[in-house]
Write a structure and sequence with these properties.
The chain is an all-alpha fold and 254 residues long. It has a domain at 155-254. Helix content is 73%, strand content 0%. It has helices at residues 2-22, 28-51, 56-68, 72-85, 94-103, 106-119, 124-138, 140-145, 158-165, 171-180, 187-203, 207-219, 228-248. Helix 6 runs antiparallel to helix 7 and helix 12 runs antiparallel to helix 13.
């Protein structure tokens, strides 16, 4: 009985410890509004595709909506259709690489980001995603051995983040560098540091710390309604947070 009581206590401590980290930073109303907006976007693009099966833009917009709704296989199908209609879309299509990643097709994801490298050899964020896909599919050491090479400076904080995924820095050391460079008040820098710091902590098996950092990324005002890449990557960070929060919410077996 004493052993059972201690096990139950440990489970309760585990659940309690995660409550702050896994608390949803988004109000339920905001989530509902986003979902409604994407459903509406899918309906509109369904109509556009029915009228013109070659409407590349419609497939692009529908693929984004499917991705943000967590409908990853449908997102992949729409993005692949874009490339079938216009092969020039292939090399720069990093969104397809992300869709492959969440759909669990890590080999295709890694190849897509490797293709993008020939299109843009400066963007370390692309190299991070190639690494993440390879790490999921092949393991951490092969992914590190296969990391892409960059020689030109990228935007902050990506040079340090790339070193982190290479195993030469920790997330805490990246945050210390951000403080030293007086960049901590920059919302963009902190969003990406929290997001990718969280993913690195997850790879290292520190799931509670990972969830804490991912939550901070999703709580950032940077991407909520922001145009372009920052807004897109905020949605992707939310997908990662939601997935890990569901996994961590499961208590250890008794």
């Amino acid at each position: 009985m004493k052993a059972v009581a201690l096990t139950l206590l440990a489970a309760l401590i585990f659940v309690g410890a995660g409550r702050a980290a896994d608390a949803d930073p988004l109000p339920a109303e905001e989530r509902a509004q986003m979902t409604a907006r994407w459903r509406e976007q899918i309906a509109e693009t369904d109509t556009a595709v029915a009228k013109d099966a070659g409407a590349v833009r419609a497939y692009s917009e529908r693929g984004d909506a499917h991705l943000f709704l967590g409908e990853f296989v449908a997102a992949v199908a729409d993005f692949e259709k874009m490339i079938a209609l216009d092969p020039a879309q292939d090399a720069p299509h990093w969104r397809l690489g992300i869709a492959y990643f969440f759909a669990g097709d890590f080999a295709k994801s890694a190849r897509q980001f490797e293709n993008y490298h020939a299109y843009d050899g400066r963007d370390r964020e692309n190299g991070i995603w190639k690494f993440l896909a390879q790490a999921k599919g092949e393991g951490l050491e092969p992914a590190r051995a296969g990391m892409l090479t960059y020689v030109r400076f990228d935007r902050e904080p990506f040079p340090s983040l790339y070193e982190m995924f290479a195993g030469r820095k920790t997330a805490d050391e990246v945050f210390a560098e951000i403080e030293k460079k007086e960049l901590a008040k920059n919302e963009g820098v902190m969003f990406f540091a929290n997001y990718y710091g969280g993913l690195d902590e997850e790879l290292r098996g520190h799931r509670e710390r990972a969830l804490e950092l991912l939550r901070k990324a999703v709580a950032s005002p940077l991407g909520r309604g922001a145009p372009g890449g920052p807004g897109y990557m905020w949605q992707v960070a939310r997908l990662h947070f939601d997935r890990l929060r569901t996994e961590v919410a499961q208590p250890p077996p008794l």
